[in-house]
From TrEMBL, chain A:
Main location: membrane
UniProt keyword annotation of rRNA-binding present: no
Mode of membrane association: Multi-pass membrane protein
Sorted UniProt keywords: Membrane, Transmembrane, Transmembrane helix
Transmembrane segments: 51-76, 97-123, 135-162, 174-198, 218-239
Protein name: ABC transporter permease
InterPro entries assigned to the protein according to its UniProt record, in alphabetical order: ABC2_TM, Nod_factor_ABC_transporter
Every ABC-2 type transporter transmembrane domain range: 25-211
A single MF term (Gene Ontology): ABC-type transporter activity
Compartments, record wording: Membrane
Organism, as annotated: Nocardioides iriomotensis
Pfam families xrefs: ABC2_membrane
TrEMBL record, chain B:
One Pfam family of this chain: ABC2_membrane
Gene Ontology BP term (one): response to antibiotic
Family listed: Belongs to the ABC-2 integral membrane protein family.
ABC transmembrane type-2 domain mapped to chain residues: 21-248
Species, as recorded: Nocardioides iriomotensis
Source taxon at top rank: Bacteria
Name assigned to this protein: Transport permease protein
Gene Ontology, cellular component aspect: ATP-binding cassette (ABC) transporter complex
Cellular compartment(s): Cell membrane; Membrane
Cytoplasm in keyword set: no
GO molecular function list: ABC-type transporter activity
Entry annotated with the keyword Signal: no
Main location: membrane
Amino acid sequence: MRVLRLVAVSYWLHLKMIAVSVFEGVFQVIWPIYFATVAFLLYGRSDEPGVLVYAGLGAAVMGIWSVVTTTASGLLQRERWLGTLELLVASPTRFALVLVPITTAMASLGLFSLVSTLLWAWLLFGITVPVASPLAFVVSILVSVFSVALLGFLLSVAVVRYRTAWAMGNLLEYPGWLLCGFLVPLTLFPSWVSWISYALPPTWGMQAIRASAHGESPWLDVVMCLLVGLVYGVVGALLSETVLRSARRHATLSLT
Amino acid sequence: MTSLRIFFVGGLISFRALFNWLSPWIYVPSLLVAPIVQILLFAYMGRAAGQESDAFYVIGNAVQYSAIPCLFAMANTVAGERWTQTLGIVLVTPANRVALFLGRSLPVVVNGFIVSMFSLVVGGLLLGVRFPAASWLPLALIVGIAAVSCTGLGLANAALGLRVRETAVMSNVLFGLLLIFSGANIPVDALPGWMESVSRWLPLTHAIEAAREVAAGATLAAVSGLIGRELMLGVVYGAAGLVALRLLEAEGRRRATLEIQ
């Protein structure tokens, strides 16, 4: 019960903190819309039927990836600058339980981007995304958010020794957009690239979202998205303990 | 002589001090790898949509990406000084403001040129795009002019930095507008009418168009009109930026807001 309360309070607190930041707001809502606009203009010139719906759905979801990669990588550095990292580490709670709600709050902010991109597509480009199975659609989105949050958790601890981790996070934004099937079908890539794509939870999440929108069964993709995300979460939890031990031993926890 | 020293020495020192992306840990992922992935992203989108050639996206995005170093570095000439609490010290000096800010622009132009040329070469190699050997020199010239022109917009962006605290957001907003309107990924004449009109007044649009024509075999003389318009826009934005810097500096002094973080 204490754990659930911790997770819920931490999630809500960080969601409020992130949501009021102009910088985060612009990044998470407006930034993907720029790319969505280019995608709509570009795909709008194609004669293929249904291609704009494909682009609309993909562009809407890619904000979830953006928000996590661009902010999670700098998560620990930010706590360090705020002077709260030592307090978080010193608390009796497992470090993973402190970080996962934060990255989940970050990923949830991607939902703003999703809704705003769908509205943008509808209002300016007349693109309506038909959703055949609303329940499956919502479940697919929520599972995608959670899985991407777990990936963000691993990212945040993996780059903790890298003082300019934000640059690494920013770098991951475009490759994710390219490789996860948001705007480019995976069939266009060489087969070895597909292996990378399927190791990333948003690829499965995007497939689940598209399947549920088209009225097909998304459940296998939903389960795979969750499983891949959990693998990232477990690796992140193990890594976070190692990283913390190392930082404590070398007294580098608060070094900016 | 003092103005020349401020222009060259001051500009270089300021660039090294304030453009913290010069660390290879930031420079390589942000300014060398990111533009390549942007090129790949749009080239593959183009392939998926059956629109344009790979060369179209390589040139468009390589030139457009110079906006990142040019806009961000220029904004940092103000925001960076404010962050290190030296803005007041800089602005209290009697230094010639034109030499001061243009000096800070010169390394930015060189950096923007390097980023774009690197993207052009590596992006082309990765996608198997070959440009005629004779086109490389004119391409380099056009890319250099694009960097000048975008740095002109960067000067205006820097001026806004005297009033807007979130200069990174401002720079991203401008970068996004250039991505949509400059014709980097959609031919300007394929944009809706009002967007096409806007794009003609933005930096990079004419340079991208000229670079594509040169890569397709046109001579430099054939695209001189486009190059001239690009250069003119850069000068206009730069001049507007210098005037705005002067006005907003005076405003900042009057309202005592120069150093509010």
